[in-house]
Design brief:
Elements: H1 2-5, H2 10-18, E1 22-25, H3 32-44, E2 50-53, E3 57-60, H4 65-85, H5 103-121, H6 135-141, H7 146-150, H8 160-163, H9 179-183
Parallel strand pairs: 1-2
Antiparallel strand pairs: 2-3
């Protein structure tokens, strides 16, 4: 959902994916005013079952918890299907620059590098790190467009509070297997 909510064409995509079932609200600071705006849109569109909040995400509603939960999943699943249908396969993110290491080799490398990295990052204050190495993340980080995309920062202004502006992204060729170059 955040991929749709944070896209350049978020309003058009909302209409294309959901028609009038999901309402669109452009980004504005969270608070009372946006709540009143959503309430007004719901009254004007009684058949709607969710709202896409520009650069925030989405919300859904129903008179019971289970139905609300199922509606949220349906909205998310429709966005997922829309995005997956337009996946460019090997050309996604400009194509692959580097092939990822095999799972075992990657885990061994992470076991060596993560404690070293944590020691350097956590000198002045504690940090919590998350390793995400699923196929989608590896496709992005090993792509031609991955390095310049990191400069775009987080997709939602509210995320600055939790994830900060930019991720740690080291432009390193895993095919060299040079751990010292990675550390440098």
């Amino acid at each position: 959902m955040i991929a749709v909510a944070a896209s350049v064409n978020q309003e058009r995509l909302c209409r294309e994916i959901y028609g009038d079932e999901v309402l669109y609200v452009p980004w504005q600071r969270p608070g009372f005013d946006i709540g009143l705006r959503i309430e007004s849109l719901i009254e004007e569109n009684p058949k709607a079952k969710g709202v896409l909040l520009g650069h925030h995400g989405m919300s859904s509603w129903s008179n019971d918890d289970r139905s609300c939960y199922e509606t949220a999943l349906e909205i998310i699943d429709r966005a997922t299907a829309y995005i997956e249908a337009r996946d460019r396969g090997e050309r996604t993110f400009g194509g692959q620059r580097y092939e990822p290491l095999a799972d075992d080799e990657r885990r061994h490398l992470l076991a060596e590098v993560i404690p070293w990295l944590r020691g350097r990052i956590s000198v002045e204050r504690r940090f919590v790190g998350t390793v995400q190495d699923d196929p989608q993340m590896l496709r992005f980080t090993g792509s031609l467009d991955g390095p310049p995309s990191r400069e775009l920062g987080t997709s939602c202004p509210d995320h600055f509070l939790r994830t900060k502006i930019k991720p740690l992204f080291v432009d390193w060729n895993p095919e060299t297997r040079d751990v010292e170059a990675l550390k440098a």
